Amino acid sequence: MNIRESLEEIERKSLSKYATFSSESLGRDTDEEECDIRTCFQRDRDRIIHCKSFRRMKHKTQVFLAPAGDHYRTRLTHTLEVSQIARTIAKALRMNEDLTEAIALGHDLGHTPFGHAGEDALNKVCECGFAHYKQSLRVVEIIEKKGKGLNLTKEVRDGIVNHRTSGNPSTLEGKIVRLSDKIAYINHDIDDAIRGRILKEEDLPEKYTSVLGNSKNKRLNTMIHSIIENSIDRPDIIMTDDISEAMSGLRNFMFENVYSNPVAKGQEEKAKEMLKVLYRYYFSHVNELPEEYRMLIEKGQVVDRVVCDYIAGMSDQYSVEKYKELFIPTFWNLQ
User: Which architecture, in CATH terms, is 3-266?
Assistant: First the structure.
C-alpha cells in the first residue's frame, strides 16, 4: 500500500477547490523519487525542520537584543507562532496545511543575527545588497547541505520569497503565511514590549484596540476570524477593511514606539558595526571562511555574497564570539 497516494486522494476529496494539491505540485528543480509515505509538501516541511539554519534561529534576535529573560521571542519562537496561526487558518479554509506549514517554517531561515538590524548592516556594506527574504530562498536553494540546497518544491520556495508585506505569493497557502507573519509579530512584539516595560496595554491607541481587542488573545481571535470568515470558499485570503486598517495602524504604532525605541534598540548600532567589521574582515580573508563557504566560491558564487551567507547564518552569540576572537586581545598567561 502506498500511503502517499492515499493521502493525495484524501486531499482531492477533502480540500477546497482553491487549495494547492500535492499531486499537482510544479515539482522540484531536480527530480527525485517520490516518498511512499509522505507527500511532497510533507517532505519539504521535514527538510526545513532538520536543516542547520532552522536550528540556529533559536539564538537569533526577534526584536530585543540579548534580552535578560527566557520568555522573550526569538526568531525561532516567532517562526513557530507564525506556523501555528497559519495552520489554524489553512485548516479552517480547507487549504493544504502541509504546504502552509512548510512555507511558515522556512520563511525566516535567511534572517541575520540581531534581526533587522543585522539585515540593515549587511545591506549597507555588501555591494550586492541584502534582504532576508531573498536570503531565505538562497538558504534552501544553495547554502544548505554543503551547497546542494534542500531541493524544495516550487510552491514552498515561492511562498518563502514572497512572505514580506509587498510580496505576492502564487498560492493561497503562501498568502495565508504572508498575513500570519504580520499577525504573529504585531501581537507577540506587543506582548514582549509590555514584558520589557516599554509600553503598557493602555498605551495602545484606542482607535485600533476598539476594533481589534484590548488583549493579545482578543486581537489574535479577531484577526484570524476575519480572515477565515472573509476567505472561506473564495479564491483569495482577505480581511475586512476595518480590521485590515486597524492592524496596519497598530503595526505603524509599533514601528514608531517599539521598533525604534532607544530602550529596546539601544544596542543595535553596536551590533551593526560589529557585523560590518566581520564582513570586511572575511571579505579580505576568504581563506578563513569555513570549508563549505569556500566551496561555494570555488563553484562560482561571488565572494561578497558568500561572505554575507556566512555572517547571515551566524547566531547572535556566535557573531559576538567571532568578533572577540578576531579583534579582542587575550592576555598571555605563561604557567
Answer: Orthogonal Bundle (1.10)
